[in-house]
């Protein structure tokens, strides 16, 4: 199957700082990337969908000015958590879908964000 | 609106027992995909199966089998002869729309005890 990487795998930051998480499709071109958030012992909640070269589409209740998503190339999408607060601490997972993926999303390994 | 219900929050079995994880979905779309994912403690999602709405054939892959019944909007997952390594959270998901956005169920924590 296709491989999706995320960097960093873990990040700890101070309240008020911004954190950038990268999501890369390593062996295919990702026309669409998805960002999910998962709180402990809870399900994955879709935050936003981004198509390469277009603005991201955010799900209801997700602040687009707080969670900046950029999908500038067919292999890279970034999620920036701006002015992070402790309540933003979560597991962030990206997934990618391409022309050849037959509608399947390939998931990255996730990034655990802890805001102190 | 779409919805996925996994009524079993936690299941605990003894090794070699068979176990079935339930999944019920809701959608008005006639074209959709159903998925099962495994999430071990490491957190990385492991893809198990995808089934489209026009294919109701059941599937077996080793110890895993899936029963898709459109009449009851269910897509249940059975592990035969469970093993300790099967311990994980299992998610059922529904994919809709041109981007096949996924809606996940709340997951079922399966613990297989030796």
Q: Characterize the biggest β-sheet of chain A.
A: 7 strands, mixed
Low-pLDDT stretches of chain A = none
What structural class do you assign from the helix and strand content of chain B?
mainly beta
Regions with little confidence, pLDDT below 50 for 5+ residues of chain B: none
User: What is the average per-residue confidence, as pLDDT of chain B, rounded to a whole number?
Assistant: 94
Rg from alpha-carbon coordinates of chain A:
13 Å
Q: In this structure, how is the largest beta sheet of chain B organized? A: 6 strands, mixed
Indicate the overall shape of chain A.
Answer: globular
Helix count of chain A equals: 0
Q: What is the helix tally of chain B? A: 0
Order of helices and strands of chain B: EEEEEEEEEEEE
Helix/sheet category of chain A: mainly beta
What is the share of helical residues of chain A? Answer: under 10%
Q: Percent of residues of chain B in beta strands?
A: over 45%
Query: Which term fits the overall shape of chain B?
Result: globular
Q: Write down how many β-strands of chain B occur, each being a DSSP E stretch of 2 or more residues.
A: 12
Largest interface: A-B, 23 and 19 residues
Rg of chain B = 14 Å
How would you describe the oligomerization state of the chains in this entry?
heterodimer
Mean pLDDT of chain A: 92
- Beta-strand segment tally of chain A: 11
Structure characterization notes:
The complex is a heterodimer of chains A (about 120) and B (about 110). Chain A has about 120 residues and is mostly beta strands. Helix content of chain A is about 0%, strand content about 55%. Chain A has strands spanning about 5, 10-15, 20-25, 30-40, 45-50, 55-60, 65-75, 75-80, 90-100, 105, 110-115. In chain A, the strands form two sheets. In chain A, strands 2, 4, 5, 6, 9, 10 and 11 form a seven-stranded mixed sheet that branches. In chain A, strand 7 (about 65-75) and strand 8 (about 75-80) form a beta hairpin. The termini of chain A are far apart. Chain B is globular and about 45 Å long. At the A-B interface, strand 5, strand 9 and strand 10 of A face strand 11 of B.
